[in-house]
C-alpha cells in the first residue's frame, strides 16, 4: 500500500517556517560578525527588526537557538563532505577519504567563526556538553554523528575491503581498552577494537592539525599549513594501506 502524500503546509505554517529559517540565518550572521559572545537573542532580534520577546515565539531560549544553528552547520558541512565524496574519481574509499579530508580543511579554514562554534569550546559555554557530544538525540548530537559517520564509514570500508594493520586488543592499555569498548558498543556496526583505535588515532591527527591551523596555533612554525596537511594525508594513507591512492591536490 503506497503512502499517502504529506499534507501541504498551511499558509500560517509556511510563514512560521520561513521566519524560523530567517532567524537562524540572522543568528549565523551575528555569530560571524560578533563571535559567540555576541550571539544574543537581543542582537538577532535587532538585526531582524523584531523584539527579543518576539523571538521566544520561535525559540525557547538562546540555548535553543544555538542548538539549531549548530545542527544546521553540521548538516551544511556534512552536505559538503558527502558531495565531494560522491564526486571523487576513482570512487575508492582511499581516494574518497583524502578528498573528504581536504574538503573538511577547506571548510574549516574559510569558516572560522562557524568552526569555532562546532569544534571549539565556545558552544559548551551555551549548550551543556552532554547535549553537544553525548549519546542522546538532541539536534546537535544527531547532526554531529552524521558528520563523524562520513569519516568513520570510509575507514571501515577500507578495513573491510582490503584491511590494514591493527593492534590486538591485548596490546591496548587496559584503561584505553575499556573506553574503546564502551564507545564501540554505541556504534551501529561492530568492528574490532584495534580498528577503532587506528581510526581514532587517524582522526586525532587530522582533526588536531586542522584545529591548530584554524585557531592559529601553528604560526610559530608555519605560515602555510597546507604542505604539512598533505604530508599528514600521505602518512595516514600509509597507515591505512592506501598510500598508493594519494593524489596531489588540484591547483
TrEMBL record:
One Gene Ontology MF term: transcription cis-regulatory region binding
Protein keywords: DNA-binding, Transcription, Transcription regulation
Pfam families: TetR_C_33, TetR_N
Gene3D superfamilies: Tetracycline Repressor, domain 2
DNA-binding stretch(es), residue numbering of this chain: 40-59
Boundaries of every HTH tetR-type domain copy: 17-77
Matching InterPro entries: Homeodomain-like_sf, HTH-type_TetR-like_transc_reg, HTH_TetR, MT1864/Rv1816-like_C, Tet_transcr_reg_TetR-rel_C_sf
UniProt keyword GTP-binding present: no
Descriptive protein name: Transcriptional regulator, TetR family
UniProt source species: Blastococcus haudaquaticus
Upper taxonomic lineage: Bacteria, Bacillati, Actinomycetota, Actinomycetes, Geodermatophilales
